[in-house]
Amino acid sequence: MTADATPDVTADIWLPIRPDEIEGLPHGPTYLFWDGGDDGTQPFPGDPADCVLYVVPYMKRWPVRMSPLERMRNLRVIQTLTAGVDDVLARLSVVSPGVQLCNARGVHEASTAELALTLTLASLRGVPDFVRAQQQESWQGDFRPALADRSVLIVGYGAIGAAIEDRLVPFEVARVARVARSERTTARGPVHSFTELPSLLPHADVVILSTPLTEQTKGLVNADFLARMKNGALLVNVARGSVVDTKALLAELDDGRITAALDVTDPEPLPPGHPLWHAPGVLISPHVGGPTTAFLPRAKRLLVDQLERFVNREPLRNVVLTTGETDDA
Prior knowledge:
Blueprint: E1 12-15, E2 30-33, E3 51-55, H1 62-66, E4 77-79, H2 86-89, E5 100-102, H3 109-125, H4 127-135, E6 151-155, H5 159-168, E7 175-180, E8 184-186, E9 189-193, H6 197-200, E10 206-209, H7 223-228, E11 234-237, H8 246-255, E12 259-262, E13 282-284, H9 295-311, E14 319-322
Parallel strand pairs: 1-2, 1-3, 3-4, 4-5, 6-7, 6-10, 7-9, 10-11, 11-12, 12-13
Antiparallel strand pairs: 5-14, 8-9
Helix pairs in contact: 3-5
Protein backbone atom coordinates (compact mmCIF):
# COMPACT_ATOMS: atom_id res chain seq x y z
CA MET A 1 0.00 0.00 0.00
CA THR A 2 1.34 3.43 -0.90
CA ALA A 3 1.12 6.66 1.04
CA ASP A 4 -1.36 8.03 -1.51
CA ALA A 5 -3.73 5.18 -0.70
CA THR A 6 -3.92 6.03 3.00
CA PRO A 7 -5.74 9.36 3.31
CA ASP A 8 -6.32 8.79 7.04
CA VAL A 9 -2.61 9.36 7.76
CA THR A 10 -2.53 12.84 6.28
CA ALA A 11 -2.97 14.25 9.78
CA ASP A 12 -0.20 15.84 11.83
CA ILE A 13 2.95 14.13 13.04
CA TRP A 14 5.02 15.98 15.64
CA LEU A 15 8.77 15.60 15.37
CA PRO A 16 11.46 16.92 17.75
CA ILE A 17 13.90 17.05 14.81
CA ARG A 18 13.20 19.52 12.01
CA PRO A 19 11.54 17.62 9.15
CA ASP A 20 13.81 19.18 6.51
CA GLU A 21 16.78 17.66 8.37
CA ILE A 22 15.43 14.10 8.06
CA GLU A 23 16.03 12.64 4.63
CA GLY A 24 13.50 10.14 3.33
CA LEU A 25 10.36 11.02 5.29
CA PRO A 26 7.35 9.44 3.55
CA HIS A 27 4.82 11.67 1.83
CA GLY A 28 1.32 12.05 3.21
CA PRO A 29 1.36 13.35 6.78
CA THR A 30 1.95 16.96 7.77
CA TYR A 31 5.20 17.07 9.73
CA LEU A 32 5.36 19.66 12.50
CA PHE A 33 8.49 20.46 14.49
CA TRP A 34 8.20 20.67 18.27
CA ASP A 35 10.89 19.97 20.84
CA GLY A 36 9.55 22.08 23.71
CA GLY A 37 12.20 24.78 23.27
CA ASP A 38 15.27 25.44 25.37
CA ASP A 39 13.22 26.69 28.32
CA GLY A 40 10.16 24.49 27.80
CA THR A 41 7.94 27.34 26.64
CA GLN A 42 7.88 26.71 22.89
CA PRO A 43 4.26 27.05 21.64
CA PHE A 44 2.62 23.98 20.19
CA PRO A 45 3.08 23.86 16.39
CA GLY A 46 -0.57 23.03 15.83
CA ASP A 47 -3.65 21.67 17.53
CA PRO A 48 -2.61 18.61 19.58
CA ALA A 49 -5.97 17.06 18.71
CA ASP A 50 -4.80 16.75 15.09
CA CYS A 51 -1.65 14.82 16.01
CA VAL A 52 -1.75 11.10 15.22
CA LEU A 53 1.90 10.26 15.95
CA TYR A 54 3.93 12.02 18.62
CA VAL A 55 7.70 11.66 18.77
CA VAL A 56 8.63 12.62 22.32
CA PRO A 57 11.36 15.31 22.55
CA TYR A 58 14.71 14.00 23.70
CA MET A 59 16.48 15.26 26.83
CA LYS A 60 13.73 17.69 27.83
CA ARG A 61 12.18 17.98 31.26
CA TRP A 62 9.44 15.47 32.00
CA PRO A 63 6.62 18.06 32.30
CA VAL A 64 7.56 19.53 28.91
CA ARG A 65 7.67 16.20 27.09
CA MET A 66 4.35 15.07 28.52
CA SER A 67 2.52 18.42 28.27
CA PRO A 68 0.65 17.83 24.96
CA LEU A 69 -0.46 14.25 25.65
CA GLU A 70 -3.74 15.01 27.37
CA ARG A 71 -4.92 17.08 24.39
CA MET A 72 -3.87 14.54 21.75
CA ARG A 73 -7.31 12.97 21.46
CA ASN A 74 -6.67 11.30 18.07
CA LEU A 75 -3.24 9.97 18.91
CA ARG A 76 -2.34 6.55 17.52
CA VAL A 77 1.39 6.23 18.27
CA ILE A 78 3.83 7.57 20.86
CA GLN A 79 7.43 7.13 19.74
CA THR A 80 10.16 7.81 22.28
CA LEU A 81 13.79 8.51 21.42
CA THR A 82 14.91 6.72 24.56
CA ALA A 83 15.28 3.04 25.29
CA GLY A 84 13.50 3.41 28.63
CA VAL A 85 9.85 4.46 28.66
CA ASP A 86 9.14 4.54 32.41
CA ASP A 87 8.45 8.29 32.37
CA VAL A 88 5.88 7.90 29.58
CA LEU A 89 4.23 4.94 31.29
CA ALA A 90 3.51 7.19 34.25
CA ARG A 91 1.36 9.45 32.03
CA LEU A 92 -0.51 6.94 29.89
CA SER A 93 -3.67 7.31 31.95
CA VAL A 94 -4.43 10.51 29.98
CA VAL A 95 -4.15 8.71 26.63
CA SER A 96 -7.03 6.99 24.83
CA PRO A 97 -7.11 3.21 24.44
CA GLY A 98 -5.44 1.75 21.39
CA VAL A 99 -2.34 3.97 21.32
CA GLN A 100 0.90 2.14 20.60
CA LEU A 101 3.94 3.09 22.67
CA CYS A 102 7.27 2.41 20.91
CA ASN A 103 10.77 2.83 22.30
CA ALA A 104 14.06 3.63 20.58
CA ARG A 105 15.64 0.20 20.51
CA GLY A 106 18.57 0.41 18.11
CA VAL A 107 19.35 4.08 18.76
CA HIS A 108 21.33 4.08 22.01
CA GLU A 109 23.06 0.71 22.12
CA ALA A 110 26.38 1.92 20.70
CA SER A 111 26.81 5.03 22.82
CA THR A 112 25.47 3.50 26.04
CA ALA A 113 27.68 0.44 25.66
CA GLU A 114 30.65 2.74 25.02
CA LEU A 115 29.95 4.60 28.23
CA ALA A 116 29.55 1.38 30.21
CA LEU A 117 33.05 0.35 29.07
CA THR A 118 34.39 3.86 29.69
CA LEU A 119 33.11 3.91 33.27
CA THR A 120 34.36 0.38 33.89
CA LEU A 121 37.86 1.06 32.59
CA ALA A 122 38.13 4.49 34.20
CA SER A 123 37.11 3.10 37.58
CA LEU A 124 39.29 0.02 37.47
CA ARG A 125 42.37 1.91 36.28
CA GLY A 126 41.90 4.84 38.68
CA VAL A 127 41.42 7.60 36.10
CA PRO A 128 39.55 9.90 38.55
CA ASP A 129 42.59 9.77 40.85
CA PHE A 130 44.86 10.66 37.94
CA VAL A 131 42.69 13.66 37.07
CA ARG A 132 42.79 14.93 40.64
CA ALA A 133 46.56 14.40 40.77
CA GLN A 134 47.01 16.27 37.50
CA GLN A 135 45.08 19.24 38.89
CA GLN A 136 47.56 19.28 41.79
CA GLU A 137 50.56 18.76 39.44
CA SER A 138 51.31 15.57 41.33
CA TRP A 139 52.86 12.51 39.63
CA GLN A 140 51.22 9.58 41.42
CA GLY A 141 51.50 6.07 40.05
CA ASP A 142 49.54 3.11 41.35
CA PHE A 143 48.98 -0.60 40.77
CA ARG A 144 45.42 -1.06 39.56
CA PRO A 145 43.23 -3.96 38.40
CA ALA A 146 42.86 -4.51 34.66
CA LEU A 147 39.64 -5.44 32.93
CA ALA A 148 41.50 -8.38 31.43
CA ASP A 149 40.93 -11.62 33.36
CA ARG A 150 37.96 -10.13 35.28
CA SER A 151 34.58 -11.83 35.55
CA VAL A 152 31.74 -9.58 34.41
CA LEU A 153 28.04 -9.92 35.19
CA ILE A 154 25.61 -8.05 32.92
CA VAL A 155 22.24 -7.52 34.61
CA GLY A 156 19.73 -6.71 31.90
CA TYR A 157 20.63 -8.56 28.74
CA GLY A 158 18.59 -6.82 26.08
CA ALA A 159 19.98 -4.92 23.10
CA ILE A 160 22.17 -2.69 25.26
CA GLY A 161 23.41 -5.58 27.38
CA ALA A 162 24.36 -7.49 24.25
CA ALA A 163 26.14 -4.42 22.87
CA ILE A 164 28.11 -4.15 26.11
CA GLU A 165 29.25 -7.75 25.76
CA ASP A 166 30.28 -7.06 22.15
CA ARG A 167 32.68 -4.44 23.47
CA LEU A 168 33.93 -6.58 26.34
CA VAL A 169 35.20 -9.34 24.07
CA PRO A 170 38.43 -7.61 22.91
CA PHE A 171 39.41 -6.90 26.52
CA GLU A 172 40.09 -10.55 27.30
CA VAL A 173 37.69 -10.81 30.21
CA ALA A 174 37.70 -14.18 31.93
CA ARG A 175 33.96 -14.69 31.87
CA VAL A 176 30.70 -12.92 31.06
CA ALA A 177 27.52 -13.96 32.84
CA ARG A 178 24.19 -12.65 31.57
CA VAL A 179 20.96 -12.04 33.47
CA ALA A 180 17.55 -10.98 32.17
CA ARG A 181 13.92 -11.24 33.16
CA SER A 182 13.56 -14.68 31.58
CA GLU A 183 16.02 -17.48 31.01
CA ARG A 184 17.09 -18.20 27.44
CA THR A 185 20.03 -19.25 25.27
CA THR A 186 21.99 -16.98 22.93
CA ALA A 187 24.81 -17.56 20.46
CA ARG A 188 27.22 -16.36 23.15
CA GLY A 189 25.86 -18.55 25.90
CA PRO A 190 23.06 -18.85 28.43
CA VAL A 191 21.07 -15.95 29.83
CA HIS A 192 20.10 -16.57 33.45
CA SER A 193 16.93 -15.33 35.12
CA PHE A 194 16.90 -12.79 37.95
CA THR A 195 16.25 -15.63 40.38
CA GLU A 196 19.85 -16.83 39.83
CA LEU A 197 21.43 -13.53 40.85
CA PRO A 198 22.23 -14.66 44.43
CA SER A 199 24.47 -17.44 43.11
CA LEU A 200 26.07 -15.32 40.36
CA LEU A 201 26.92 -12.14 42.27
CA PRO A 202 29.67 -13.56 44.52
CA HIS A 203 31.72 -14.54 41.45
CA ALA A 204 31.59 -11.21 39.57
CA ASP A 205 34.43 -8.68 39.67
CA VAL A 206 32.32 -6.19 37.69
CA VAL A 207 28.51 -5.95 37.76
CA ILE A 208 27.04 -3.84 34.95
CA LEU A 209 23.38 -2.79 35.21
CA SER A 210 21.62 -2.22 31.87
CA THR A 211 18.11 -3.29 32.74
CA PRO A 212 14.97 -1.22 32.08
CA LEU A 213 13.16 0.26 35.06
CA THR A 214 10.12 -1.88 35.84
CA GLU A 215 8.27 -2.93 38.96
CA GLN A 216 10.53 -5.98 39.03
CA THR A 217 13.79 -4.04 38.73
CA LYS A 218 13.00 -1.00 40.89
CA GLY A 219 15.22 -1.33 43.95
CA LEU A 220 16.66 -4.57 42.58
CA VAL A 221 20.12 -3.59 43.79
CA ASN A 222 19.28 -3.48 47.47
CA ALA A 223 21.28 -4.25 50.61
CA ASP A 224 21.05 -7.99 50.04
CA PHE A 225 22.17 -7.70 46.40
CA LEU A 226 25.14 -5.52 47.37
CA ALA A 227 26.10 -7.76 50.28
CA ARG A 228 26.40 -10.69 47.88
CA MET A 229 28.90 -8.82 45.69
CA LYS A 230 32.48 -9.90 46.29
CA ASN A 231 34.90 -7.66 48.17
CA GLY A 232 36.50 -5.14 45.81
CA ALA A 233 33.86 -5.58 43.10
CA LEU A 234 32.77 -2.70 40.88
CA LEU A 235 29.10 -1.79 40.30
CA VAL A 236 28.42 0.07 37.02
CA ASN A 237 24.95 1.54 36.45
CA VAL A 238 23.92 2.68 32.96
CA ALA A 239 20.30 1.63 33.53
CA ARG A 240 18.12 3.85 35.73
CA GLY A 241 18.94 5.36 39.11
CA SER A 242 15.98 3.74 40.84
CA VAL A 243 17.28 0.26 40.05
CA VAL A 244 19.73 0.88 42.92
CA ASP A 245 18.86 1.56 46.55
CA THR A 246 21.03 4.65 47.11
CA LYS A 247 21.08 4.35 50.89
CA ALA A 248 22.26 0.74 50.71
CA LEU A 249 24.89 1.65 48.12
CA LEU A 250 26.21 4.49 50.26
CA ALA A 251 26.64 2.10 53.18
CA GLU A 252 28.78 -0.22 51.07
CA LEU A 253 30.81 2.64 49.56
CA ASP A 254 31.47 4.22 52.94
CA ASP A 255 32.66 0.86 54.20
CA GLY A 256 35.06 0.67 51.24
CA ARG A 257 33.99 -2.87 50.40
CA ILE A 258 32.96 -2.13 46.79
CA THR A 259 33.29 0.71 44.29
CA ALA A 260 30.77 2.15 41.85
CA ALA A 261 30.55 4.01 38.55
CA LEU A 262 27.15 5.62 38.02
CA ASP A 263 25.72 7.31 34.94
CA VAL A 264 22.32 7.44 36.64
CA THR A 265 21.38 8.13 40.25
CA ASP A 266 18.43 8.28 42.58
CA PRO A 267 17.60 11.10 43.03
CA GLU A 268 18.38 12.54 39.60
CA PRO A 269 19.73 15.07 38.94
CA LEU A 270 21.86 14.49 42.00
CA PRO A 271 21.40 17.63 44.12
CA PRO A 272 24.29 19.63 45.58
CA GLY A 273 25.27 18.37 49.02
CA HIS A 274 24.09 14.81 48.42
CA PRO A 275 26.47 12.35 50.13
CA LEU A 276 26.84 10.31 46.95
CA TRP A 277 28.90 13.11 45.38
CA HIS A 278 31.75 12.55 47.83
CA ALA A 279 31.36 8.89 48.69
CA PRO A 280 34.67 7.01 48.47
CA GLY A 281 35.26 4.93 45.38
CA VAL A 282 32.47 6.36 43.24
CA LEU A 283 32.66 7.84 39.74
CA ILE A 284 29.58 9.78 38.59
CA SER A 285 28.63 10.93 35.10
CA PRO A 286 25.44 13.01 34.55
CA HIS A 287 23.24 10.54 32.61
CA VAL A 288 25.12 10.85 29.34
CA GLY A 289 24.83 7.30 28.02
CA GLY A 290 22.74 8.38 25.04
CA PRO A 291 23.58 11.93 23.97
CA THR A 292 26.56 11.52 21.66
CA THR A 293 27.22 12.02 17.96
CA ALA A 294 25.93 8.46 17.47
CA PHE A 295 22.41 9.53 18.50
CA LEU A 296 21.15 11.70 15.66
CA PRO A 297 21.86 9.49 12.62
CA ARG A 298 20.39 6.47 14.37
CA ALA A 299 17.37 8.42 15.57
CA LYS A 300 16.70 9.66 12.05
CA ARG A 301 16.94 6.16 10.60
CA LEU A 302 14.53 4.86 13.22
CA LEU A 303 12.01 7.63 12.52
CA VAL A 304 12.10 7.18 8.75
CA ASP A 305 11.57 3.44 9.13
CA GLN A 306 8.75 3.82 11.67
CA LEU A 307 6.99 6.53 9.68
CA GLU A 308 7.17 4.49 6.49
CA ARG A 309 5.59 1.62 8.38
CA PHE A 310 2.94 3.91 9.86
CA VAL A 311 2.02 5.46 6.52
CA ASN A 312 1.90 2.08 4.80
CA ARG A 313 -0.05 0.47 7.65
CA GLU A 314 2.69 -2.02 8.40
CA PRO A 315 3.49 -3.31 11.89
CA LEU A 316 5.63 -0.86 13.84
CA ARG A 317 8.93 -1.78 15.43
CA ASN A 318 9.72 -1.66 19.14
CA VAL A 319 6.12 -1.70 20.38
CA VAL A 320 6.25 -1.81 24.17
CA LEU A 321 2.51 -1.88 24.72
CA THR A 322 -0.84 -0.73 23.40
CA THR A 323 -2.93 1.32 25.82
CA GLY A 324 -6.01 -0.43 27.06
CA GLU A 325 -4.39 -3.86 26.69
CA THR A 326 -2.15 -3.85 29.79
CA ASP A 327 -2.35 -2.76 33.41
CA ASP A 328 0.10 0.04 32.58
CA ALA A 329 -2.36 1.80 30.32
